Structures are given as structure tokens and as C-alpha cells.
Amino acid sequence: MVVGASSGIGRCVGIGLVRQGYEVALLGRRTDRLDDAVSEAGAGAVAVTCDVRDSASCTAALEQACDALGGADGLVYSAGIGPLVPLVDTTPELWREVFDTNVVGAALTTAAALPHLAASAGRAIYLSSVSASMTPPWPGLGAYAVSKAALDKLVEAWRVEHSEVGFTRLVLGDTAGGSGHGATEFTSSWDTDRVAEYFPIWLERGHVSGAVLDVDQIVATIIGLLETDADVPSMTVMPRPP
Ligand SMILES: NC(=O)c1ccc[n+]([C@@H]2O[C@H](COP(=O)([O-])OP(=O)(O)OC[C@H]3O[C@@H](n4cnc5c(N)ncnc54)[C@H](OP(=O)(O)O)[C@@H]3O)[C@@H](O)[C@H]2O)c1
């Protein structure tokens, strides 16, 4: 089950897994986009509409996905948002939206999938960011970095309560995603004036170098994590410096 599979990395991972022979449920809010991904993936994919900010939707969607797949042995949590807003302008509503999507949704979908993941001694992989653990927070993305740091701790908390499931934090550097709807839409809400303000700072501080990860490397890493017998608490994948 790939949560956040209607665009970007999650879409590429979902399609990549189907092409590798997995049966995969693709979850997200935009049903038309999920249907499009299912068509591209071919036999073995199913679309399930899910809003991770809504607990009833998480429960119903994960149940629907597990029913369709006849159980589940893997969860990839790719859903995430990262508004480009300075902390001083981050409203209570925006804080909640970021945390509901990036942290609470991860907890709720995991809880809903847990009986199936436990029965199969399965795996759960959560996409985190270098900005939460490898670098200082990036100016303008404070709420995002704080939420990903919370996600990192959430993965550790699941590990101590449920050792029967292999929980992994997958820390990623910059990627543009794939082609078409596989391109990342992570920055699509960003205001261009704010990008112009913050990008030079990120460049100067070395947060971005111009190098981006090939999304196929991320897909291959996730397939490797799903297939290894080893316990992998955390992994980091970054682009090589130019
Ligand atoms: N791109 C990068 O360079 C990068 C680097 C490090 C980490 N990451 C992480 O990788 C993950 C994927 O990022 P991306 O670049 O692929 O971004 P993206 O193209 O914007 O994809 C985000 C996905 O999250 C889903 N989503 C957002 N809100 C949701 C909600 N309330 N309920 C269900 N699904 C929701 C979106 O689907 P709907 O809108 O259809 O719901 C979409 O499928 C994120 O967690 C991001 O933090 C990305």
C-alpha cells in the first residue's frame, strides 16, 4: 500500500512496485489521478481514495485496500506537504494541516494497517527529509522540518511498540520525481516571491546544490527495503554532489 500515490515519488514507487510484480493499492485524495496511475501501472494495481487528515477515511481506506489485496505486507507512507511560509506567518490552521498530513496521518494509516502488517511480519517505510535530521531546518520550511522530525520519532515509537513489523525511516534528499504526473508537486503551492527570497539562502548554506536524486534510485531503494530480511531502522539517500 502506497499512501500519497497520486503524484510524485509515491506514484513512481507504486507503479515501480507493480512493474516488479507486486500487487499494490495506491492511496490519496485525487481519485482521477489514482485511476490514471492504475492505468499506467497495469494489472496488479488498485486505487483507493483516502484523506489522511480524516481518521474515518484512513480506517475505511486501509480496510478497503487490505480487502482488495487479500492482506498486506508493506506500507509506504509518501503523503506529505511542505508549505513555504516563515514561522512568524504560520497560522494555527497551517500547523495543524502540516502535522495532520505529515505525522498524524502516518500514525492513523499505520494503526489501520497494523493487524495485516503484523500477521505478515511486514514492513512500513516513511519518507522523511534531510531537512529534519541531516541539515539545520531550512528557512521558510520550519513547520515542515518540525513535522518531519516528529515523523522520525513516530517511526521509532512504532518500532518499540511493534517489533513484529519492520519500521524504516527513509530520509531523502532533493528529487524532481518522475515524468508526467510522476513529477513532484511538492513545491506547487509555493509563492514565487518567497522562492526568490529563500532559494539563495538555501544555496549559500549548502542545503541545495542543484543535484537531484533520480527517482528510480528511490524506487529501487524501497524495493530493496521491502525485500531484505535485515532490520533497517533508518536509511538516507541523497544525490551525489555535482
Ligand atoms: N520531492 C523531494 O525532493 C522530497 C525530498 C525529501 C522528502 N520528500 C517527501 O516525499 C514525500 C512525497 O513528496 P513528493 O515530492 O512526491 O510530493 P507530491 O508530488 O506533492 O506528493 C505528495 C503526495 O501526498 C499526497 N497527500 C497530500 N495530502 C494528503 C492527504 N491529506 N491525504 C492523502 N494523501 C495526501 C498527495 O496526494 P493528494 O493530493 O491526491 O491527496 C500526493 O500524492 C513527501 O512526504 C515529502 O515530504 C520529498
Note the main attributes of this structure:
binds NADP nicotinamide-adenine-dinucleotide phosphate, alpha/beta, Rossmann fold, 7-stranded parallel beta sheet, 242 residues
Q: List the ligand species.
A: NADP nicotinamide-adenine-dinucleotide phosphate
Q: What would the average pLDDT be, to the nearest integer?
A: 97
CATH topology name, in short, is: Rossmann fold
Q: How many strands, what sense, and barrel or not for the largest sheet?
A: 7 strands, parallel
- Shape verdict: globular
- Helix and strand content put the structural class at alpha/beta
Figure out the total of helices: 8
Query: Could you give me the name of the CATH homologous superfamily?
Result: NAD(P)-binding Rossmann-like Domain
Which strand order do you get reading across the main beta sheet? 3-2-1-4-5-6-7
CATH architecture tag: 3-Layer(aba) Sandwich
CATH class: Alpha Beta
Low-confidence stretches: none
Spatial extent as radius of gyration: 17 Å
Order of helical and strand elements: EHEHEHEHEHHEHHE
Beta-strand fraction estimate: 5-15%
Q: How many strands in all? A: 7
The percentage helix is 40-55%
